[in-house]
Structures are given as structure tokens and as C-alpha cells.
Amino acid sequence: MTRWLAEYAWLPDHAEPTPDVLIEAEGGRITAVTPLVGGGAAPAGVEVLGDAVRLPGLTLPGLANAHSHAFHRALRGRTHGGRGDFWSWRDVMYDVAARLDPDSYLALARAAYAEMALAGITCVGEFHYLHHGSEGRPYADPNAMSAALVEAAAHAGIRITLLDTAYLTASVDGAELAGTQRRFGDGDALRWAERVDAFRPENDHARLGAAIHSVRAVPAEQLATVAGWADRNGVPLHVHLSEQPAENDACRAVHGCSPTRLLADHGVLGPHTTAVHATHPTSADVALLGESRTGVCLCPTTERDLADGIGPARRMAEAGSPLSLGSDSHAVVDLFEEARAVELDERLRTRKRGHFSAAELVTAATVGGHAALGWGDAGRLSVGDRADLVTVRLDSARTAGVPPVGAFFTATAADVTHVVVDGRTVVADGRHLTVDVPAELHAAIREVTS
Q1: How far is it, in rounded angstroms, from Cα 177 to Cα 31?
Q2: What amino acid positions are annotated as catalytic residues?
Q3: What tens digit of pLDDT does each residue of 320-329 get?
Q4: CA–CA dist 250, 171 (Å, integer)
Q5: Which whole-number Å values give the CA distances from 120 to 104, 282, 348, 389, 446, in the listed order?
Q6: Can you give the pTM of this predicted structure?
Q7: For the chain, N or C: smaller number of CB within 10 Å?
């Protein structure tokens, strides 16, 4: 059994942190959560042993990064200057994608996932479409790139849901994949399903999910094939949705409806589906997402970096869509910043303050993200759930003098000191225990950019 004594802990259904909480775990599961009475005096029957690990600061459940493209980490600092939009940025992204193979992708993803661990992320949803080799030729193992990502997460010490992505066409009107895009395609949805069926992660840290890249990349008549595969296998399904107005316009021109309506008509929406971005939905789209209980994953740092716009987060939440968060392109890997941005961007959009409480943002970053990735037993500091703990300092230049309830609005990834995943310590005193993150990032990125 392992014990931790948290100075403050954010417990389920609490509006603010609780002081002096003893957390116990065995076999990777939380076995007891005991708030101590009187600032450190144990209640009757509870013995606080000297071997309890003290966690100064605020301890949260593990954070879930519900939307990642690991290879985009190599783009940081290389795409931010000058003019352009999502479509010009995409050309630079393709240049990096063209250079990767299973070995270089393993090195890059391992470093990227270890950076996530340093930021308090205990689980990642990898929206994976870089499947094949040059010109779209499959590797000897057609799932070699998938295996590299699963292995990378194991090395970094975090869990992964590999969202194997169907990417079949270049545009809504069915244009064929060209150039680097050929590496993404399987020909059609049936062949995509055959390839994915052949890959089953064996380790407990990894699970398989599915994704529809977008209505641009999967023809309407094949959407149900991907959605049906996810439903039969009982796995989460994710989809990029209405990220840019051009996507909406193209869908209306070809299909006479919005992307959300098209997905609804082909059985894609539902409580096991997560729409990523949903930046430009109509009011009718918001209602469709909410009524179907389709989740929405917001990625504010990427959405602002690519000048995508600000989505109606509060309206979507009120309509019934559970929210989660993702770092997407990894321009920033900091779920505290993503969470803050949900509130602050809503203020910019509406010119009003106070849309999301700290507790709501914590939920999106923890239990909401884990649920979207198929880990319903994670994201809460409660008995029976996975023993994932993230501790944030309350004495840094950013958090000093801030009440614990306000730390989620002021802390950054740099304030994370201690990370536990499934009961195993991965980060201690702000350092990853097995990966030299800066050195490995430098080497892996140089390999694919020089």
C-alpha cells in the first residue's frame, strides 16, 4: 500500500479543495480518501504513518489530454510567425509528416508524451492518422506507426487511447489524397477497419479507439462504417468538427447541410462520440450535439494559434455536451492554460465574465477528458478509481498568495511537482524519473526538421 498526505486535494463534487487529505492506494487503485480533522489530526481508526508521502500544494486527479497529434510537437516555434491561416499552416505540418518513420516517430512521441507527464497529464488521446510509409505504401507491419505510439506512451509513463483515424479523401467532394496525404489513407472505410482490427494493444496502459478525421476526409456514405466499427467494439469515436468556416461552406455546397447535420444523419453522434473543436456550429448544430449527448473537446491554444476562432463553449455545455480539453498541435502543452482559456475566451466572445467555475474547468480537464477517452475509472480522487495524482505548488511566483481554489486559474504546467499514474510515481520534484525531456525533444525534433 502507498499513502500520500496532500496539503490540499480537489475531491469529487467539491466546489473547492479540501485541506489535509490522506490518500491510500494499492494495485494502482485508490483504496481510501480521508480528509483529516482539525488540520492534521487523524479521525478515529486512521493512522497516518510516517511513510506517507507528503504532497505540499494542491493535489488534483490526473489530467487527460483528450486530443493530441504527437508529431505536431516538432512544429512548435516554426509556424507562429508571418501571415496565413490553418490552410497555410497545414502545408508546413505535411513537411514534418513526410519525414517520419516508426523509429523517428517513437522517439518524437516518447519525448512529447514525457513533456505531457511533466505537465500533469496522465492519459492522452492520440488522434492518429499517419499510418503508412512513403506514397502510402504500408509498412511490413501495417500498424507499425500505431505500435510506436503505444510504446512511446509506455516509456513516458502515461496511458494512451489510440484513436485510429480514417482519412480517405482530400476534400468534401471526394478528391483523392495526394502528396504526403497518401500516407494517411487506407483506400476505403472497410480496409481501414480491417487494418485496425489487426491491431490490439496488449499492455494495460493502452486502449484502442476510432476517429473520423473530418467530413472532408471520410465520404458521407462511409461515415456509418467507421461509426459502426466503434459501436461494435465499444470504443470511443472522435471527429474534427467545424474547425473552420471553409469546412462548413464546403459541406453545405456538396451535401446541402452542415457537417454536424451530416454526421447526425449517418449515425455518428452520440454519448460515445467526441466532436473536436466545434468552433463554428450553428444554433441547430449546438442543439444536435447536446441532444445526442455528444461530447466536445476544446483546444483553445491551438484554435487561437491557427486563428480558427472561438467556439460557443458555454452554450454547448448548457445544451448537454460534456466538455474535455486537448493540446492538439502542442503549441502549448499546459492543460491549466487550456482550461483557463475556455473561460477567458468566452469572456472575449461575449464581453461578459464568469461563465465557468473552477470546479467545472477541473472536471473538463480530468474526469471529462478521461471519459471521452474511454477511461471511466479515472479523473477523480475517489475510492476504486485509478490512483492518478497531480500536485501543483502553491509557493511559486505564479501561485504564491493565491487561495487553493484560485490555483487552477493561476498555475501553469511549470508548477507541477509530483505526478502519479496508476499508483506509480512518474514525476517527482518537477523532474521526469526516466526521460530527459528537453534533451530527447531536442534530438527527436532535430531528426525530423534538419
Answers
A1: 51
A2: 277, 328
A3: 999 999 999 9
A4: 8
A5: 25, 34, 27, 8, 25
A6: 0.96
A7: C
- DSSP E strands, 245-320: 273-277, 295-298
- Put the strands of the sheet holding 159-166 in their side by side order: 63-68, 121-128, 159-166, 206-212, 237-241, 273-277, 295-298, 323-325
Helices and strands (DSSP H and E) totals, the chain: 15, 16
Q: E-strand spans in 51-145?
A: 53-61, 63-68, 121-128
User: In what helix (H) or strand (E) does residue 162 lie, and over which residues does it extend?
Assistant: strand 159-166
Least confident of 271-275, 302-306, 325-329, 392-396: 302-306
Backbone angles phi, psi at 187, to 5 degrees: 100, -60
* Long-range contacts formed by 144-148: CB under 8 A, 24+ apart: 144/102, 145/100, 145/102, 145/105, 146/199, 147/102, 147/199, 148/102, 148/103, 148/105, 148/106, 148/109
Residue with cell 504532497: 55
On whether the CB atoms of residues 396 and 53 are closer than 8 A, the answer is no
Quick one: cell of 222? 462511409
